[in-house]
Structure formats: C-alpha cells, structure tokens
Design goal:
Blueprint: H1 21-53, H2 62-84, H3 99-132, H4 152-180
InterPro entries: DctQ, TRAP_DctQ
Family: Belongs to the TRAP transporter small permease family.
Membrane topology: Multi-pass membrane protein
Length: 190
Amino acid sequence: MSQTDVESPVREAPRAIPEAGRLGRAIEKGAYLFAAGIVLAACILLMEVFLRYVFNRPTIWAHETTTFLCGLAFLYGGLFCVSRNSHIRVVLIYDALPAGARRILNIFLSLLSMVAAGFFAFAAWIMVGKAFWTPQGDVRMETSGSAWNPPTPALVKAFLLVILIVMAVQFLVLAHGYLRRPVRGTESFE
C-alpha cells in the first residue's frame, strides 16, 4: 500500500464557510475569548471545591460567575455555528437536490433565518428594556437576588440582544454569499 492510499491522520480544523464573509471570520476569531471563558469557569469551580471542602470557606460568587461565563459562551456558540454552517439541519431532502436547487434553498433559508433572528432580537430588546430600566425610566440593572447580587441577568440579556442582531446580519451575509457563489457540482454541506 502506497503512502497516497493511506488517509492522513491530520485533518484541517473546520472554519467559517467562505459565504460567511469577513463577519464569519471575525466571529471565528472571537470564539477564542469565549473558549477561554469556559476554561476560566472550570478553574473557578475547581477553586470553589478546594475552598469549600478543604478549608470550609466557600465563596459567594463562584457559582454565579461560572453560570454567567458559560451562559455567554453558549450564546456565542449559536452565532459561531451559524458562521460555520454547522447548525442542525435535516438533510434527507436537501442532499437529494441538485446543486442549483440547494443554492436557492440556502438563500431562502438564510433570509428566513435572518427574519427569525430579527424577531428574536426584538423580543430580546423588550427583555433588555425591562432588565435595565425601571417603569419610571430610571436605570437599574436586574440583579440575581443572591447574597452577592451581581447584575449578571441584565448583562446576559444585553449580550443575547447583541448576539441576535449579529446573527441576523450574519444570515444576511450568508444569503449574499450564496447568491454570489457560482453553482458547483454535487457538493454537500455538513
């Protein structure tokens, strides 16, 4: 068996699809920050276990901080998946279509997803309004209500709003990218 017959064990890491444009590449780079947040959350929890069970001195902030960091990472993960076209898709019909029909379907689904993300962003705006302002119009960020009482609920809602707006724009960029892309042979997206 020659070396060309053996599949290389090194695979190229998946990246934002070309149709995602510059925004997709920026989203790809931003993911490292949120991956670091997950690692930081794990370190905080490890420290909390050590402080709680070795020194009997638990913190009041560790659990809320890690929930906040992981929540932000999961929200960003949705945007990250959009830029890579790695979201869940039922491909039974999609894979049976010719390349031109798949291209049209990609454009349509991207535009439909943009509208859906826009509606969700509008709903998030309503949540942000309630989380940041009192009915009288004073600025008061919603807090967790715990002993530490950080404003993490308000911050997560604001981050969700930003993510949904960027997601809507990313879907528009994808639709434009699919529209500009020439029809190729029998490619299949995973």
